[in-house]
């Protein structure tokens, strides 16, 4: 990754025989991040990283994300549910009691317009997992 003409990080990707990404390893400013991707047919069913496991649910006959959940590691296996728009953009994240803990609105082309983080610290593993 280049920032202002300088190399700030590197990335390595692995794909299966069907061309689906199954792993990502990135090193940015000396910090290593690894992710694993699981598939159900051509739909991405899950993503695992150091902070959480993301599970994705789809409407029958559709490949657009419908609902999903995030299970954090190291927080007593807390589960959060994310809610998306029709194209899979995350709009809200709720805890197991239905309370909104993360919410975003977007401008045209996907830039975040407003971001609200409640009940969790902005630097927590949950906000890393949502990103």
From TrEMBL:
Residues 79-112 form the RHS protein conserved region domain. Coiled coil: none annotated. It comes from the Bacteria. This is RHS protein conserved region domain-containing protein. It comes from Pseudomonas putida (Arthrobacter siderocapsulatus).
